[in-house]
Design brief:
This protein is α+β, with helices and mostly antiparallel strands and about 450 residues long. α6 crosses α8, α10 packs antiparallel against α12 and α15 packs across α17. About 50% of the residues lie in helices and about 10% in strands.
Amino acid sequence: MPIRGDPLRHHNLGVFMGVSPVEPESDTPMALSDFSIRSAKPRQKPFKISDSGGLHLLVQPGGGKLWRLKYRFGGKERLLSFGPYPATGLADARQKRDGAKKLLASGVDPSEERRKEKIATAISQNNTFGAIASEYIAGKETSGTAATTISKLKWLLEDLAAPLAERPISSITPAELLDLLKRVEKSGRRETARRLRGTISSVFRLAVVTLRAETDPTFPLRGALLAPVVEHRAAILDERKLGALLRTVDDYDGWPTITAALKFMALTCARPGEVRLARRDEIDFEKAMWRIPAERMKMRRPHDVPLSRQAIAVLKDIWSLSEHGELIFPSVRSNRKPLSENAFNSALRRMGYSKDEMTAHGFRSSGSTILNGRGFDPDVIEAVLAHQDENEVRRAYNRAKYWPERVKLMQAWADLLDEFRALRRRETRQSTQTVDPIIS
């Protein structure tokens, strides 16, 4: 039976009887305040305190407070997170709610838009110059590029190009690159600046083909850098002086492997790095051949070196010293480590030869100059030195065609070195036997 009369009287009656009146629900929840948010204490179970427009704060038992937006899209109820309070304040949360509402009004799901933004951010992080440079280096390592080359690439891209590391690659401009390169150039390293430009260009080309950049901004910089000052490696080109050097090497009392390696380098005209890292399994004594693998060659192709009788003798003389390792010319400290990059030049300095007189790489120049001067076939000499032929077909043809000629040339060169050494020995002996006449 309905209660008639004063509503307030009935309200008081209900309170008197211990029954709480039912308050009508509001269509618009009361807006939150920073005070009410801070005052909300955690309970045993998570609970929500609402703001408006579907925005609410989820209070967790541990005390954490997380912003959520409840909305409907495509007939389904969904939730969107706006981050924790107080890192995301009340005003920020409302601004994000309003942004989501605008997307909904235009028919876009805010959650899907958020997912796309995360993907774009992840892609952007992988599109920095540093990230693509790392990919480029990793690709070189996988393809078998020599360790020394990898080390140089890392120095160029990770050290010298460090200012570009966090930059989105598509936003890097030619002017920005020119400033970087000019700073390297002004430090006196012209060749390094040019090499850095070329290496950076390789990274951009990788970005272009993987659709992470549209152009290579280093292209307009061609010709913008000063030409490097060419410094030829010092070499002894006089046959008598070369003979004197060979005698000095023979008499050198340093570590045996260094002496043997210097002799072997002179006999084979190989590069210092190729000799330092030479391995026992690369030598074929029956065929008198040293096969250098592609990863250790400057031109990245395998190179076969004919071994003269003298070169074979040097190897057999030193062979027992490396029988417990893989390297032919191991380090003084360990048979598992190669001689250092400076070992040969340091030995030459101790022998009395300055850097302006002779370098380890100079043995190649000595061989090339003297053999050309004596009229040997220039093409065969180039094949011996493993210089790159621009014509790929001709290169493959020459490698097969010139093998017998190279075998003869390397034996002739070894015999010439013996002659230079013997000539110097005779001249030294004669000079010590010569006595100035005494005028009475």
